[in-house]
């Protein structure tokens, strides 16, 4: 009996987890995993066919974690293969290419695919998601900036990292934080711990920043009709200023949105008698 004790204690501290990668084809999912596990980068594109599977061991605090990684193919053609693999997942690496806006816009569809395959009883709340804004080494082609990606991720309570599988930037930090969060989740009875970032801004603030980014002109930005009066412009401005003032709002992109609103108001007032 005594002789069994240390073994049982060890077993209690070890943990087996399943993580999957998700995101459009060619965004760099396999390269991110390769960079972390094999410390190398392959520049030739070798599309994943269906699923690649690997096992790795990591240490988080006093626990040994056995990680089963399922690296999914991003091509729509492989949907039938992918849909078998969503269940019983503790962590998702959700990847987009910062030079491909489509791959960023597709993130919602990836979540929807997973949700659909988990079925009505599947719970996305007990899964840790990390968003990788990948290929940050390709600075010339970048079209999704950090605040846009971070806002999307953090407003959903997801982790966010800027990564380059090519240079290795952000990769180790991303995996470390990801695994620690999964262990925290397992130790927290399967509930995602509240992160500082997810609790620090409201959905209204996030939605407003996104709306301002996508607005077509100054009227649109202040959400007033073209030809609105000075009073209406000022009223709309004050409302947005209260919502987005840098002293009050820490959402990613809030500072730029606030500046844009100030400029829009100035531009409109110049032309209203
Ligand atoms: P699928 O398996 O088809 O879903 O694609 P994937 O997301 O696994 O992409 P993969 O990792 O195979 O990478 C696609 C291409 O992007 C390859 O040519 C890689 O060399 C390149 N690539 C991946 N990550 C980076 C990166 O961080 N920087 C640069 N410059 N290229 C990258
Ligand atoms: Mg791949």
Automatic annotation (TrEMBL):
PANTHER family: RAB FAMILY, RAS-RELATED PROTEIN RAB-7A. It comes from Ceratotherium simum simum (Southern white rhinoceros). It comes from the Eukaryota. Pfam families: DnaJ, Ras. GTPase which can activate the MEK/ERK pathway and induce cell transformation when overexpressed. May act as a nuclear scaffold for MAPK1, probably by association with MAPK1 nuclear export signal leading to enhanced ERK1/ERK2 signaling. This is DnaJ homolog subfamily C member 27. It is found in: Cytoplasmic vesicle, Phagosome membrane. Belongs to the small GTPase superfamily. Rab family. SUPFAM superfamilies: Chaperone J-domain, P-loop containing nucleoside triphosphate hydrolases. InterPro entries: DnaJ_domain, J_dom_sf, P-loop_NTPase, Small_GTP-bd, Small_GTPase. Keywords: GTP-binding, Nucleotide-binding. Residues 217-273 form the J domain. Interacts directly with MAPK1 (wild-type and kinase-deficient forms). Interacts directly (in GTP-bound form) with MAP2K1 (wild-type and kinase-deficient forms).
């Amino acid at each position: 009996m005594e002789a069994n004790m240390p073994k049982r204690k060890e077993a209690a501290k070890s943990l087996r987890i399943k993580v999957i990668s998700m995101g459009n084809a060619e965004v760099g999912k396999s390269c991110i995993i390769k960079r972390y596990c094999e410390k190398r980068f392959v520049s030739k594109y070798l599309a994943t066919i269906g699923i690649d599977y690997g096992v790795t061991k990591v240490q988080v605090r006093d626990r040994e974690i056995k990680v089963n990684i399922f690296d999914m193919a991003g091509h729509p053609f492989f949907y039938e293969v992918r849909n078998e693999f969503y269940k019983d997942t503790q962590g998702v690496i959700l990847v987009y290419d910062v030079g491909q806006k489509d791959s960023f816009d597709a993130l919602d569809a990836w979540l929807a695919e997973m949700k659909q395959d988990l079925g009505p009883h599947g719970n996305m709340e007990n899964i840790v998601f990390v968003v990788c804004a990948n290929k940050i080494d390709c600075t010339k082609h970048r079209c999704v900036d950090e605040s846009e990606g971070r806002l999307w991720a953090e407003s959903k309570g997801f982790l966010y990292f800027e990564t380059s599988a090519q240079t290795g930037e952000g990769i180790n930090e991303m995996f470390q934080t990801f695994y620690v969060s999964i262990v925290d989740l397992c130790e927290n009875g399967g509930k995602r711990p509240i992160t500082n970032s997810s609790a620090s801004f409201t959905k209204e603030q996030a939605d407003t920043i996104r709306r301002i980014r996508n607005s077509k002109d100054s009227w649109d930005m202040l959400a007033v009709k073209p030809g609105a009066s000075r009073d209406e412009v000022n009223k709309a401005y004050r409302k947005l200023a209260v919502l987005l003032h840098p002293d009050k709002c820490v959402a990613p992109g809030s500072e730029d949105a606030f500046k844009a609103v100030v400029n829009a108001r100035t531009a409109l007032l110049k032309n209203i008698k």
